[in-house]
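Researcher: Batch entry, complex prediction.
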Amino acid sequence: MQQQQQAVRSQASRRPNVLILLLLALLVAAALTVYSFRDTIFAYWDAPPVDTPVEEPPVDTPVAPVEEPPGSDPVDAEPPAAEEPPTVEEPPAVEKPPAAENPAADPPAAVRQLANGDDLLALVTKETSLGKYEPTDLVTIPAEMGLYDTRYQLRAEAYQQLRAMWEEARDAGVDFYVTSAYRSYATQKRLFNNYAAKHGEKAANKFSARPGQSEHQLGTTVDLAVPGHVLASSFGGTTPGRWLAENAYRYGFIMSYPEGSTGITGYIYEPWHFRYIGVEHAAACRESGLILCQYLEQQPQQWQ
Ligand SMILES: [Zn+2]
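Model: Structure tokens for the complex:
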């Protein structure tokens, strides 16, 4: 009896051992399989995580810092200004499709083409175009007059008058700074397309010009600001903003888009945007009580 029982026991205790051996063999086989195909397997697993982190930083890092300064600069802009008015006025975000369809944003072909961008009285509106006009007498505005590191340019005469105005204001305890000046056709095109992509083309059209239709392309126009009031309607309420509204004409500068003129100009109130048209014409324009574009419409224009 005892021997029989022992035999049964040893048989029973042997079975689990066999199972364990089988399992171990399977594990070893699986491990060997994984090991031999490790390249293929890890290529799948590793590729996405490894590639993504490696690629993103290099791309983002250089782009962001580089774009930011220009954003405030190239400007026409009106990044900040863009935020308020458009958002309020353009609830219908329905305009987005056209923006996407027509990212080129070139001005309508029907607009009148100006023949001479050098003319200080050239009528630059949404119904006219400078084409790809480029000034030939640009000078660089000194860093001390700028709000940002970006250096801007103006045509020589406009700069001299801006400098005189800036110094006299400073002597009177009034400080303001340049946040944008000359912008090329190409710069304006990039800027407008960025705004159109973000806000829709129709909204962008109210605070930014299409290429060929910006007074900044003339090289006689500046955006002025103080910290905290950059491209913002609030600038008009600051001491420098009020000083400029009252005195800029004495140096030949006119606020192109004053408050309440949107129906005439097509642009929002831009108390920061001043265009040089010469001291005599600036005085006459102010005397007339006309908006700048209305005044210029009465002046001889050179069309192509
Ligand atoms: Zn401007």
